[in-house]
Amino acid sequence: MNTGVKSKIFDAILYFIVFIAVLACIVPMLHVAAISLSSNNAILSKKVYIWPVQLNLDSYKVVFMDRSMVRSLLFTIVLTIVHTISCMIMTILAAYPLSKKELKGRNFFLLLIVITMYFSGGMIPDYILIKSLNLLNNFWALVLPGLISAFNMIVLKTFFTNMPESLEESALIDGASYLTILVRIVLPLSTPVLATLSLFYAVGRWNYFMDSLLYITDSRLYPIQLKLYQIVYNNMQLEISTIEGGLSSNLLPESLKAASVMFATVPILLVYPWLQKYFISGIMIGAIKE
Question: Would 140 be classed as within a structural domain?
Fold first, then answer.
């Protein structure tokens, strides 16, 4: 068997594995979407798989009529934006100095940051810290504890380290400060990695609810994922101010839960197309070594 045939067989096996992995990711989502758009009879008779049966939008009407769900969605959008911007600022301010070989104690500071990837204080110390800072039921309790990711910082530091030194040397000769170099030269050339890390931070914040479960009891500060958790696992009812013709009473819990899942998932999925062109090149940066 020649090399060309072996290569084709290997490619075919690889494509098959990727295809199975894609199906494993997409099929469950299609199934949930199909349930949310199907009629009660179709759901009860278990006819719904990945396509809606007897199209029915009543579940979405109920979800959008729930003021608490809409409020949680809007709050989560604001929280995600603030969190992502804050995290990127801190990540940049940590990664850029650590990428400079002339920084004294660089390896020591980097070691301290890397340690946090493997060890943490634990849930109880974290709660005591947040409580002692008077951040319970506070917006910033959902932002400050996760303000920087050691992994993302190392990825960005690696990118900065591998940038041509001649660019900064020329700017320094012209009298530019390090801050000017960072803002006007380094960051514009780092768009792929910045977009990728921003996506990581945004998706992580959007999907995370454990901190709000621990620190937040005010329903006005519930992120959408905590609201979804309460609906799906605690069977909490939707708080609908106006129900026309007893709409919600005629719907199955499975249908309402599926609609709630889609309501909480679709907004973050809409972010991917805007960053897709940067994503592939950005995720490869972590593989580059100094």
Answer: yes
Q: Cα(148)–Cα(242) distance, rounded to whole angstroms?
A: 42
Domain-embedded: residue 53: no
Residues 24 and 138 placed together within one structural domain of the fold: no
Q: Which is nearest to 217 in space by CA: 136, 141, 131?
A: 136
- Give pTM, 2 decimals: 0.83
Find the domain containing 26 and state its range: 3-44
Q: How many domains does the chain have?
A: 2
Task: Report phi then psi at 135, rounded to 5.
Answer: -105, 5
Question: Looking at the predicted structure, is the pLDDT value of residue 76 above 90?
Answer: yes
Pull the structure tokens for residue 164.
């041509």
Q: Residues near 155 by Cβ (< 8 Å), separated by ≥ 6?
A: 193, 197, 285, 286
Q: Residue 165: exposed, middle, or buried by beta-carbon count in 10 A (0-12, 13-18, 19+)? A: exposed
Q: Is residue 49 in some structural domain?
A: no
Span 8-59, pLDDT tens digits: 888 889 999 999 999 998 999 999 999 999 988 888 888 888 889 888 888 8
Same domain, 28 and 158: no
Of 275, 205, 262, residue with least CA distance to 228: 262
User: Is the domain of 15 the same as that of 113?
Assistant: no
pLDDT of residue 244: 46
Backbone torsion region of residue 246, taken as left when φ is above 0, otherwise alpha when ψ lies between -120 and 50, otherwise beta: left
Q: Which of 7-21, 79-93, 179-193 has the highest mean pLDDT?
A: 79-93
Q: Do 139 and 257 fall within a single domain?
A: yes
